[in-house]
Amino acid sequence: MDAQRPAILAQDLVKRFGDFTAVNGVSFEVQPGQIFGFLGPNGAGKTTTIRMILGLLKPTAGRAEVLGLPVAQAAAQIRPRVGYMSQRFSLYNDLTVRQNLTFFGRAYGLSDAELAERMRQALDMAGLAGREHVRTKDLSGGWRQRLALSAAVLHRPQVLFLDEPTAGVDPVSRRAFWDMLYSLAAEGVTVLVTTHYMDEAEHCQRLAFIQRGRLTACGSPEEIKRSLMPGPVLELAPADAGAALQALRRAQQAGRLPPAEIELYGSRLHVVAPEAHRLRRPIARALKAAGLDPGPMDLIEPSLEDVFIASMR
Amino acid sequence: MSTRRILAVARKEIHHILRDRATLFLVLFTPTALLLLMAYALTVDLKHVPIAVLDYDRSPISRRFVAQITAGQDLDLYAQVGSYDEIERLLVQGSIKAALILDPAFARDLYALRGMPMQVIIDGTEPESGAFAVDHIARRAETFVTQALAAQLQARGLPAETLRSIDLRVRTWYNPDLKPKNDVIPGLISMVLGMPALSVALALAHEREHGTLEQLLATPIGRAELLLGKILPYIAVGLINVALIPALAIFWFRIPFHGSFPLFFALSAVFLFAILALGTLVGVFMRTQAAALALSFLVIFFPGFFLTGIFFPLASMPEEVRLEVLGLPGTHYAIITRGIFLPGVGLEVLWPYAVFLLVLGTAFTAVAALFFRKKLG
């Protein structure tokens, strides 16, 4: 592979379905060996973009390259060198672990000897050794996703596309899944992953935010925070966060509090505004007026979730 | 095209089929069971049709006539009745399918050689039984009147041999007993073998419905490879049925099989390729299994039933329909099965149909592969 070339290149990709524009001029690059996070609400165009880059969907306009090869012309050369985990569970539920791995191995043209070797490694990697003959549907969600990832990398792809691989998976299993991703990236595999989980986004080297078909931000997590969130966030720890949130929203409606994004964050409240520190006093006043204890207030660094929610407004 | 990838898909498909015992059983035995069921439903020989008799004459002659008509297995005398009202009640109840009314002048007119005044009422909701009864009564009446005539001629000292009715002798070749099952069952085989095509359509729709199709299309497996890989195991399944079904036809229904088994097997494989390719076309077009099921019935079974000449001869179809019918694999296979079963003809006669099937199968696969590309997303 040409070292100067990005592993994935999207250039002004556009996809229209009738009157609806699902993807509207999306461009980005992913360098070899990077873990690239693709973030956005449901229906923002993440899956459509991935499908275009994989050559499963013909773009209305724009072009994509994978490993320096144009997708429109060279899909057949690209396919054996990339792996894909589609959004929905991508394995066959009625087949066993071994049958699934065998099928995908053969689909990618592995010889029987290669297949035996890779299968052993895949089972070790997914922690499924000894469970080869279990039907896939009898595995729990986390195990299934690890198996799906093992199947997707059986043929040693250079680029891996993962569409919401951890949706609906418990935190421990998500952790295990990401450990697998790190070791793949360490081996030089380029990973493009979409996710809803902001803690996962923090683990990516680069991120892109997509909203209504357009990229709203692209860069490292720090760059994104800086570009989308001009200041720190005010964090409140009131005794009763729910009641406090209601009191503050009422105060906003009554015009006693300047506009700001206030979100519940566990038992705390995050207030996002251009100059959040100036809101300390009005907030304390509004809460006291409602008979509530404001509790401690701190200015903190915004999390990606703050950025994400703020950028969606 | 890579044989290895086609085989990978085929093996996976076999795993799917073997995985689920219920599906396995269904796929293997439904065509046979269907044949058994339909053969019985469609070839009921009409026998013991119940009728009522309203005899206004009540003469020894009229009684003899009724006795002759209801002798044997064709018509059963359900009741002697006294009025039309009773006939109507029995017809409505469904106890009788027809009624015979003999005029008070029945015997008198017969003696006077003026005819046989009588009436037959049939149940129009079941015209086949009624027509059968009318036909039977008319034939018996003819014999009866000839006999009565002969008796009178003899009584007057005239030679009765001068009375010869037309002697038309019909010979039916290939199916000498004119048993409907001999004709229907070879035709039915082409229909029940459409079942594997339904399975393959469902299997494809299943992949789409469960999202695994998208995963498949991202692998190096090509569209045509995927379709051929899907078809192969079902050809094998179909051939198991091809072995079971003639056995059933020959040993259970006692239908003569005059042709060559290897030829029947080979041409059945060609038919299976064509009908399964049609099944993949259905599977490619439909997004859900329910829709694929509905379309399968529309394009695989109904036309197979009505248009392929199994029950209604091709010659009786309007010109424009006949052309469409040539695009249905069942049309050609019905001709092949009938030809091999009854007259026992060989490839020298059947080759055009085999070629047609190969062309159809290839065309269906090509169109399916072409449309596959456009149908994702």
State mean pLDDT of chain B (0 to 100 scale): 82
Radius of gyration of chain B, in angstroms, nearest whole number: 29 Å
Domain count of chain A, please report it: 2
What is the overall pLDDT average of chain A? 88
Hey, which two chains have the biggest interface? A-B, 30 and 25 residues
Q: How many structural units, i.e. domains of chain B?
A: 2
Q: Which band does the percent of strand residues of chain B land in? A: 5-15%
Beta-strand percentage range of chain A? 25-35%
CATH class of the largest domain in chain A: Alpha Beta
Structure summary, number of beta strands of chain A:
14
**Rg from Cα of chain A:** 23 Å
- Count of helical stretches of chain A: 11
Spatial order of strands in the largest sheet of chain A: 6-7-8-3-9-10
> Which structural class matches the secondary elements of chain A?
alpha/beta
Strand order of the largest sheet of chain B: 2-1-3-4
Oligomeric state as shown: heterodimer
Proper CATH architecture of the largest domain in chain A: 3-Layer(aba) Sandwich
CATH superfamily placement of the largest domain in chain A: P-loop containing nucleotide triphosphate hydrolases
Q: What is the count of helical runs of chain B? A: 15
Distance between the termini of chain B: 25 Å
Q: Tell me, briefly, the overall form of chain A.
A: globular
Q: Which key terms come to mind for this protein?
A:
heterodimer, A: 313 residues, alpha/beta, Rossmann fold, Alpha-Beta Plaits, six-stranded mixed beta sheet, four-stranded antiparallel beta sheet, 14 strands, 37% helix, B: 377 residues, abc type-2 transporter like fold, 2 domains, four-stranded mixed beta sheet, 15 helices, 4 strands, 66% helix, elongated
Give an overview in words.
The complex is a heterodimer of chains A (313) and B (377). In chain A, the strands form three sheets. A six-stranded mixed beta sheet of chain A has the order 6-7-8-3-9-10, with helices on both faces. In chain A, 37% of the residues lie in helices and 25% in strands. Chain A is of the alpha/beta class and 313 residues long. Chain A is globular. In chain A, strand 7, helix 6 and strand 8 (190-195) form a beta-alpha-beta unit. In chain A, helix 4 runs antiparallel to helix 5 (141-152) and helix 5 packs parallel to helix 6. Chain A has two domains: 8-224, 3-Layer(aba) Sandwich (Rossmann fold); 229-312, 2-Layer Sandwich (Alpha-Beta Plaits), CATH 3.30.70. Chain B is an alpha/beta fold. In chain B, 66% of the residues lie in helices and 6% in strands. Chain B has helices at 3-19, 21-42, 60-70, 84-93, 106-111, 127-155, 180-192, 195-209, 212-217, 223-252, 261-285, 289-306, 319-325, 329-341, 347-374, and strands at residues 49-55, 75-80, 98-102, 118-122. In chain B, strands 2-1-3-4 form a four-stranded mixed beta sheet, with helices on both faces. The longest helix of chain B has 30 residues, at 223-252. Chain B is elongated. Chain A binds chain B through residues 48, 51, 54, 56-57, 76, 79-80, 82, 84-95, 99, 102-104, 106-109, 135, and chain B through 2, 4-5, 7-9, 11-12, 15-16, 19-20, 210-212, 214-221, 376-377.
